[in-house]
Amino acid sequence: MVNLLVIAGEHSGDNHAACFVRQLKLRHPGINICALGGPALKAAGAHLLFDLTRWSVVGFVEALKHYSRFKTLLTWTVEWVRVHKPKAICLVDFPGFNLLLAERLYKEGLSLKGGGTTCVCEYIAPQIWAWKARRRFKMDRYIDHLGVIFNFEKQYFEDTSLDVQFVGHPLLQEINPFRYDPNGPILLLPGSRKSAVKRIFPVLKKAFGQLKAIHSELSALVPYPNPAVERILREEADESIQLCPSHTIPCGVRAAIMSSGTASLQVALAGIPGVVTYKANPITFFLGKKLVKVSYLSIANILLKQILYPEFLQDVRDLASVIALHVEAMLSMPELTRQKYVEGARQLLKILSNGQLQDVVDWLENYCV
């Protein structure tokens, strides 16, 4: 019997899911867990059916380019569930694929709500508080249980009958790979998706080059999640930029120039100064400006309801120079800057841990063991 099928299409989701898989296997050595995920889930002991993280994309235009192969994989996954009848499925983030799968499982009569035997759980909800708020009604219809990572998210489902539990933020359960070091390198975080890295890393590199022209001793550190991203980075990197696998950050850093992903929240929780930037496909950027309903891009700024990390997007003129100017100001006043970000980290920790009654492992045990 398959106890649990985990589906995680993002590198961050792969890492978060790996943590609860590892804990489930420690508590229940005989548990059978399969996954459509990535290398972290495989290393944690899940039987990897397909490396879904290779297809990680973001944005309307990017998703359209991969529509046909996602459709094929969706059909294959439904048939796999029909044959193997897992006790539970845990959908981790990746709503473009996962919500479609939940709908198909319902219509095929395979999920509990569809009259079947497989319990469909969702962990890490799509950010309906930012855009596409009506997705909550689709989730209510097709998903059995939802585990959210921000306590405030529960209020957005109060007009549904969906069972919603706050199970804590995964970063509080994981070792933070980043730490502050006043003499360390500059951390460059271009993201984990190949398309995004191709657009963002040249901006980060140019900004760092301008900083190095002022501080000749500076070096840069760039983590990469997989060999495909490493190859992209090596085409652009020079001798002052060190590349390393994401799971082996070798030293602390003094400041960060980063895209707005999970790693940016890790940086914030470590109290490291920095700025946030992003470059999307022009059509995706235009649609995002029209549809997204939050004031900030960085999750740290969203949670704090104010700007801790300055944000500079692709519509900023001479983007790299503006980024370098702000980071230079931080480097010129290290002690004062550090105090500001340490206080921000303290507030974020309080926000993320407030109101948690159970963790994700306890939550999932109810449905898959």
Structure notes:
With 369 residues, the protein is an alpha/beta fold. It folds into two domains: 163 residues, Glycogen Phosphorylase B (Rossmann fold), CATH 3.40.50.2000; 167 residues, Rossmann fold, CATH 3.40.50. The protein is built from 14 helices and 13 strands. Strand 1, helix 1 and strand 2 form a beta-alpha-beta unit. The termini are close together. The relative contact order is 0.13. The mean pLDDT is 90.
- Taken in chain order, the helices and strands follow as EHEHEHHEHEHEEEHEHEEHEHHEHHH
Helical content (DSSP H or I, runs of 4+): 40-55%
Outline the biggest β-sheet: 7 strands, parallel
- Whole-angstrom Rg: 21 Å
Mean pLDDT: 90
Structural class of the secondary elements? Answer: alpha/beta
Order of neighbouring strands in the sheet with most strands: 3-2-1-4-5-6-7
CATH superfamily of the largest domain: Glycogen Phosphorylase B
CATH architecture term of the largest domain: 3-Layer(aba) Sandwich
Distance between the terminal alpha carbons, to the nearest Å? Answer: 11 Å
Summed up, the helix count is 14
What is the CATH third-level topology name of the largest domain? Answer: Rossmann fold
Q: What would the principal axes of the Cα set say about the shape?
A: globular
Approximately what portion of the residues adopt beta-strand conformation? 15-25%
The CATH class designation of the largest domain is Alpha Beta
